């Protein structure tokens, strides 16, 4: 019987808006007769610590390439990887429709009915304008300001509030 050496090499990378870590686990039999090597790549999604929201070192959730993804979350994450713009666009549309229906339910009196044309307009705005523009904006900001430190985060927030927010609001009010 020979010994087995296991090496794990991890490197963080940005995937969309998520910080991930690619880990390569290399197992090698140290026995001369059974000299073999197996490599497995896994991806880890970082969740910020509640005590330090800028930290990415605590409470990690691991995703393997295919088998550990199951259910709706697994399907959604695979759609985000294969079709990011389409997935984000439809997600934004559904969120806008749900938000509008919720706002109508909260603000309406018991005798008034829901305005489904308004809800359809809001869903259309999310589908045609907001979803694609947010995808492009956040990718642009990640390329222009690639660092993930506190100062760069504040710069991104300022740019979003000074440039993207007013442009988005003007477009919303024009439509």
UniProtKB/TrEMBL annotation:
Does the keyword section mention Transmembrane helix?
yes
The answer on whether this UniProt entry bears the keyword Metal-binding reads no
Q: Which domain of life is it from?
A: Eukaryota
Cellular component per GO, a single term? cytoplasm
**Sequence segments annotated as region (Disordered):** 29-65
Task: Name where it mostly resides.
Answer: membrane
Q: Where located?
A: Membrane
Q: Where is the composition biased (Low complexity)?
A: 47-65
Membrane topology summary: Multi-pass membrane protein
User: Member of which family?
Assistant: Belongs to the peroxisomal membrane protein PXMP2/4 family.
Q: What is this protein called?
A: PEROXISOMAL MEMBRANE PROTEIN 2 PXMP2 MPV17
């Amino acid at each position: 019987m020979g010994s087995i050496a296991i090496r794990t090499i991890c490197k963080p990378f940005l995937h969309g808006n998520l910080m991930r870590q690619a880990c390569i686990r290399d197992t090698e039999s140290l026995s001369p007769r059974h000299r073999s090597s197996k490599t497995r790549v896994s991806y880890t999604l970082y969740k910020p610590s509640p005590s330090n929201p800028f930290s990415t070192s605590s409470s990690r959730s691991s995703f393997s390439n295919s088998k550990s993804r199951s259910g709706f979350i697994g399907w959604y994450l695979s759609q985000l990887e294969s079709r990011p713009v389409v997935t984000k666009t439809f997600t934004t549309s559904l969120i806008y429709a749900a938000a509008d229906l919720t706002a109508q339910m909260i603000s309406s009196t018991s005798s008034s009915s829901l305005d489904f044309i308004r809800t359809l307009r809001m869903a259309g705005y999310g589908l045609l304008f907001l979803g694609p523009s947010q995808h492009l904006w956040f990718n642009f900001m990640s390329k222009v300001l690639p660092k993930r430190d506190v100062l760069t985060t504040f710069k991104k927030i300022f740019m979003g509030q000074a440039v993207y927010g007013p442009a988005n609001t003007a477009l919303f009010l024009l439509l």
